[in-house]
Specification:
With 249 residues, this protein is α/β, with parallel strands linked by helices. The chain has helices spanning 3-15, 72-79, 173-179, 192-205, 225-236, 244-247, and strands at residues 46-51, 85-90, 111-114, 117-120, 146-150, 184-190, 209-218, 239-241. The chain has one domain: Isochorismatase-like (Rossmann fold, 3-Layer(aba) Sandwich).
Length: 249
Amino acid sequence: MSQDADAVSRREALMIAGGAALVAASPFTLGKAMADTTTITPDAQDVFLVIDVQNDFLPGGSLAVKNGDQVIAPINALAKKFPNVIQTQDWHTKAHVSFASSHDGAKPFEVTKLSYGDQVLWPDHCIQGSKGAAFSDQLDLPMVQLVIRKGYHQSVDSYSAFVEADKVTKTGLAGYLTERGIKRCFVAGLATDFCVAWTALDARKAGFETYVIEDASRGIDALGSMAAAIRNMDAAGVKRIQSSAILGA
């Protein structure tokens, strides 16, 4: 997939969320995933990327993914199997450009045009230092080695753990992983069809073998966004597995 085509597909995935309500999404059920008999034993060249398990994305939060709290138990179990664990954290400024409240007359989930392209306008969420931005207190991840904060630039949104929404501003994660000798990225968290998928796609673009752990992720699935994310990940060579591939039956 060319860079231009990739950018278009991502814009389309965002645009279909405009005007839609957030709805429940079970783990991936479309497309082809690796066989259930696949067994993976993480080693020093593997990293587990835990994406945005924060209060505002959990039930009761301002941008909640329904059943988002169901990712916590498998993530806690999986993290114990990895020698390298990294978390990401949405970390917005007040009046961030991606907030509907920052645009006169705009409503959440409308789409506006910014300097870097189409932008879904979200409810205020994950504001720096707020309770909503905090990680769930049900997470048990003392082994985390690095937290990548994203979305802290006032004028650009950020979904991927690797590159912000302008497709130019890098977080430095790819360089960090390369220096650490990481070869494989395993991604889970919230939400599968946005931050998880964008992270997985950028991990592949950065040259890492990449897996999304389906049952340790939950999505929004707004008017086809889940199917679009699966299609894009499959095309990019992102592999999809169940946590049992790592934890055992």
